[in-house]
Every structure is written in C-alpha cells, then in structure tokens.
Amino acid sequence: MLKRILTIAAGVTLGLTISAGTAHFAALFGWWPNRDLDRSASTLREVLKLVNENYVDPKSAALPELTKAALDGLVGTLDPHSEYLDAADYKELQEDISAEFGGIGVQVELNKAGRVVVIAPVAGTPGDRAGIRRGDEIVSIDGADLIKPAMQDIVTRLRGKPGSKVRLGLHRPSDSKDLALTLTRESIHVESVRDAHVLPDGIGYLQLTQFADHTADEFMKALKQLQAQGMRALIIDERNNPGGLLDTVVDVAGPFFKNGELIVYTQGRNPKDRDEYRADNPAPPLTLPVAVIINAGSASAAEILAGALKDTHRAVIVGERSFGKGSVQSIFKLGNSDGLRLTIARYYTPGGEVIHGHGIAPDVEMVATPEEDRSLALQRDRSDITDPAAFKERFGIELVPDRQLAAAVDVLHATLLLGDRAAAQVPTTAVRP
C-alpha cells in the first residue's frame, strides 16, 4: 500500500513538473494565450464586423478602409512619430533616403494637435528661398486640405520629380497670416558644412546645416582648414539644423572625445534595451575652447551633439532652448507587406538627460525675436549680401546684428584670455634680504 502511495505521489510530482515546464516553454515561445490581447482583438473584430454589416454607407464601411483607419488611430495616438504604413508607404520608406531626391527642402513634424509644422527649412533649398519659416503650418498641399494627416503621406506629397511643381497653403501663427506658395521641386543635396572661416583673434566659425552621410567628412575637412589658418577656438553654429543620421553625429562629435568615451545612449522600455554610442577616435581629442549656437529649430542629431559637448564640459552652449526631438523609431514589416514605424526608445545625453520633449538648455541664453530670427537665417544663407540697403530691397527686412554669435565670440574671448594669462604666469622665488 505504501509503495502504491509513493508511486502515485511520484507520478503527481512528475506531472506537475512537466506541466510547469510546458507552461514555461509555452510562455517563452508565445504558445500560451495572451488573454488581454485575445479579448482586445475579439472586441476590435466585433466592432469591425458590426460597422461593416450595418453602417448606412457601405463604401465607407469596407473592411480594408475600416482596418486602415483603426490602425492609423491606434498607432497615431501614441506620439507624432509612430505610424502605420500601408504597402505603398512602406515600400517608399525602404528607399535610400540618403541619396538625392526631389523635394522642397523643409523639415516638418506633426505636433500634438495634429498640425504639420515646419521645424526648419534646409538652407539653400526651394522652401528656404520661398521664405518658409520655422513654425509655419502647412495646411494644404496641391489644394487638398490636410485633415488628420500621416507623416509619411506628407513626405510623399511634398517630394516628387525635380522640376515638378507643388502648391502649398501655409498658416503663419506668429502674425496670423495665410500664405499660398507654388514651389518647384529640386534635387535636395546640400552642403552640410558651410561658411567655414576664421574670425579675429583666431576664433574659427562654421555652420552645420544637417547630419547627412557626408557630413562627417565635410566637418573634418573644414576643421583642418581652420586649423591651418591658425584657429585657437571654435564656434559651431547649429541654428535651424533639423538633425539627420545618428552615426553621423557620433562621427562629428568623435574628435572632441577620447577613444571609447560615451557620446549618447538610447534607452527603451526595458533596462536591457540600452544602446551606447561611443567615440571612435584613436588620436588625442581636440582641447580648444568650443561654443555651440542653437535655437528652437535645432533638433534631433543637432541636439545630440550640443548635449554631448555640454554634458562633458567640452563646449559652452549659446542661444535658446532646442526643439526637443529625441526619440528612436524602428520599422517593422508586417505579414501583408505593410509596415509599422514605432517609437521604441529615447536619446539621452552622457549625463543621463532626456532630450525628447525637453531640448537642450543653453548655458548662455540669448533669445532672438521672430524678426531677428528671420533676418539672421537669411544672413547665414545669403552671406554674399552684406549691404543693408541691398538686403532690405531683396528680402524686405532689415539687416540685424547677430547677438547670439556675438555672445559666443565673447565667451570664447574670455576663455582665451584666461588661458593666455595662465600660460604667461611665471613662478617666482622669494629672496631674503
């Protein structure tokens, strides 16, 4: 009898062990049902079926259209950068966007209200020459109003064959104006590093307009040219820089960091979802004084560079708080050839400061008025027009002094002066009479 009881007990124990192991592997490989997911999917299916079979307009209630609308709404409520992509949009997204393309040269975002807002026009492009400004809202394209627009759809409609035209309806909140512009698309391939020259007292200056695949090479070339001209300090002007490629900004920041030093990291929802980006710089890092100028049009990769240099005390940041675009999107291919762009992580500076929604705060705040900002952007783009009368006649706006640049120069002057005085100090020995 005892033997039989022991046998039964052993069988029960073995059964429980097998059941527990099966449950573990079922959960591990996704065999175990997710009841919350099943209930949600069942409710969605039920609503789709009821609408499809009973809505008064059968064309509006076709299942493909209902499904797309449901997915757009589901993903679109997360943040402005997550998006459901149908097969055509997904295919277009897979094209090599680092190559030249036809467009008007504006960087846009969807704000929380669902409006298409210009972060910044890219210098030297049709949008920039037409006078589109940071903060302008695009309300229509080719006569079609933008109602609950999807970002990929906006990009698709703004791009096109070089030489083709696109009509834009704009609203300018700063002065409550509505504008209508017709622009001719061009191949958008602009220099990332512009106007590199040396100011008095050996202060180098350059503009970084974007972070494209060729930016790091252009940046290193400009640095060497400035060094050959006797540069003792450097101003990096990132105003209205809409960002670009993560690998590129890491390469641009690299010369200022020791090899292997942290420049930026991303963090997802789980602690293990952390990716670190470190300097690949076998040479000694540059130690010259640096100032970085930013404004509210400095976004994404531009904020990563400013944040990394600020956090590690390698630069003084001058200007105004940056845009605050610091999230990471991944593209997932779905089983029906559609796609999903989903925010999976956020960028953090080396010191752990989150960029997204906060931006980079300047060390020396110097806020430009909208009028100053417009004039300064034109001056940076059209440095060939320096006569005040000619500038006013061409653009209808006065030349204004660049207070942000002047503040950056003052900071570096003070740093150089302190360095020169420290170098000039000679130790003295007290002599007794």
Structure, described:
This protein is of the alpha+beta class. It folds into three domains: 42-93, no CATH class; 102-187, PDZ domain (Pdz3 Domain), CATH 2.30.42.10; 193-420, Alpha-Beta Complex (2-enoyl-CoA Hydratase, Chain A, domain 1), CATH 3.90.226.10. It is 36% helix and 23% strand. It is built from twelve helices and 19 strands. The strands form four sheets. Strands 3, 4, 5, 6, 7 and 8 form a six-stranded antiparallel β-sheet that branches. Helix 7 links the parallel strand 11 (203-208) and strand 12. Helix 7 (215-228) runs parallel beside helix 8 and helix 8 runs parallel beside helix 9 (301-311). The protein is globular, with a radius of gyration of 28 Å. The model is unreliable at 1-31 and 428-433 (pLDDT under 50).
In a nutshell, what does this entry contain?
With 433 residues, this protein is of the alpha+beta class. The protein has 3 domains: 42-93, no CATH class; 102-187, Pdz3 Domain; 193-420, Alpha-Beta Complex (2-enoyl-CoA Hydratase, Chain A, domain 1), CATH 3.90.226.
Observed structural traits:
433 residues; alpha+beta; Pdz3 Domain; 2-enoyl-CoA Hydratase, Chain A, domain 1; 3 domains; six-stranded antiparallel β-sheet; six-stranded mixed β-sheet; 12 helices; 19 strands; globular; disordered N terminus; disordered C terminus
